[in-house]
Amino acid sequence: MSQLLFLFIAVPMLAFFATLFWQNKNEKPIGNIVRFAKVFNILIAVSYAAWWMINGLSPVSYKLATLYETEHFVFAIQLYYDEITAVFSIVGALLFFLVATFSKYYMHRDAGYKRFFNTILLFSTAYNFIILSGNFETLFIGWEIKGICSFLLIAFYRSRYLPVKNAFKAVSNYRISDVALMLAMWMMHHLTSRNIIFPELGDAKTLAVASGQAGMAIFIVCMLILPAVIKSAQFPFTTWLPRAMEGPTSSSAIFYGSLSVHIGVFLLLRTHPFWEDMAWAKTVIIVIGASTAIIATMIARVQPTVKTQIAYSSAAQIGLMFIEVALGFHWLVLVHFAGNAFLRTYQLLVSPSVLNYLVHHQFFHYIKPEQKKISQLKAALYMLSIKEWNLDTIMFRYIWSPFKWLGKKMEFFQSGVLMLVLGVAGIVFVAAGYASPKTFQSLQHILPVVLISIALAVILFAFSFRQSALKAWRYLITGHIYIIAAVTFNADHINLVELVYYISGVLLAFLLGQYCLQRIKAIDNDILLNRFHGYVHEQETTGFLFLLSAMGMLGFPITAAFIGIDVLFTYVQSGQTILIILLAFCFIFIELAAFRILLRIFFGPHKKLDHPVAFRSS
């Protein structure tokens, strides 16, 4: 029966590929495929849970496949089933059924009907990858796919300004959580000297205590709390959640009301054995959860839009779940999760009808409210809540603006000659680092830092660049070259196949992206990054190909670079603080720069006025 765990992932994945062969107008066959997937998903979840309970509630573990293996590293897809998985899988299957059934009628004759169900089925695959994950590598595959699905659904109405802007805002937060999870995987590998599965997290904690590696354990826990806080929209990252409601109501229900937003709670539940004895970690989680519950409740009470109210209310309830996880009330968390997920899904799905009723009722039965005096404290809290505690402004000013400012200070990179020299020098460094790293042994401590600093400088320049998209795209591949060079000089020896994994993935993505941008440039010789162009209207296939290339550039799980990046991380030692910080920033801003190019060139209001153009505001 352990082998049947694969069905949880296989069914929505096969349905996703099946729907790709139909056109948008073929709603009936697409609906039939989705109907089969959602019914079969419920049967699998309920049947497997019943078999699991009959057989004594013993956890089930199954290694599905080993993608790459060396003496010091194993990349395997490991599946795991226990009471946490049972609850999340049944709730997920039921909510997928409800939302898909609702969406069949809600999205009828929508221009993005097929695109919507493609993304929902892919999300279902990612969700099952996460809840069935038996190790960090498997969890990270689902984590990445889920993030892309979320991005695509927020920007579903891609001809409008705000959905595109808010999709980029959400993916900026997601990328921080992605890199934090990568760092947790990396440090766990250095702590245990192997790739462990989740049931062994308790042993890893014991090993950290016995070997005196408390610093490693603290770092891992911090890197686990951060992605959990971001994905579940906890303080101070709460404001991305209402911005994510720009997508269709049904996608908001399944993503930001029910399933996706609770993944942070799942991560804390799954990794609880590692940090359950750390009082400071429990205190941090409780403080974050309590702060979110209080602040989000205050904000929700004064918001003028129903989706924003539901978003903040959901974040407040998840804050309480964080407290319950930290206190060890895991069954209470699972019950709380199921109740909150169903409630928020219901609220979001009926919200259009409720609004229609309330508007009608207010029109015929309006009663002017009485004027009441309020204290200065209440007035201050009211204004703070109306402004959402200025969290958006604070995040932009103190996190993103400094990096944009740094990127703008790198204007000397605009020189074509300099970039050519940098590119050639980077390739030479990669070859020299692989062929004879011992030749530069005296510079081994400083040279990787210098090379990764060059990579970060180039990437930040691409992130803030407002001229040609082709130039910005070339800067990103240059950044990748210097990342590879830095890691090759940092390691005593790297297997050639590991470099091939990384280079082949990003190189193919770069060439595909270059081809797409050249095609767009040939239209009217205008691909500047100082505005939205909206070329997806007339070049939808090219836009899809560039989306694939952007995902490949960041090492998404559709290219060999996904394995290559994960393996190369292991060659950075745990004591190299500066190197790992710079490397983390590189991987954060590579994705943001690539997706910025995608959004500016293909999404947003079309610059041509030969068709209806959405207003800038909603």
Description of the structure:
The longest helix has 35 residues, at 330-364. The chain has two domains: 2-355, no CATH class; 409-602, no CATH class. The chain is mainly α and 618 residues long. The chain has a two-stranded antiparallel ribbon with strand order 1-2. It has helices at residues 6-19, 27-54, 83-106, 113-131, 136-154, 161-192, 201-210, 214-231, 240-243, 249-258, 263-270, 272-275, 279-300, 306-327, 330-364, 376-386, 391-408, 416-435, 447-464, 469-490, 496-524, 540-553, 561-569, 577-602; strands at 60-69, 74-81.
Indicate the percent of residues in helices.
Answer: over 70%
> What is the C-alpha radius of gyration, as a whole number of Å?
24 Å
| Biggest sheet, spatial arrangement of strands | 1-2
For the secondary structure, the number of strands is: 2
- Helix segment count? 24
Helices and strands, in N-to-C order?
A: HHEEHHHHHHHHHHHHHHHHHHHHHH
Structural class: mainly alpha
Shape: globular
In the predicted model, the low-confidence regions spanning at least 5 consecutive residues are none
Number of domains: 2
Between the first and last Cα atoms, what is the distance in angstroms?
Answer: 50 Å
Question: Describe the biggest sheet?
Answer: 2 strands, antiparallel
The chain-level mean pLDDT equals: 88
Percent of residues in β-strands: under 5%
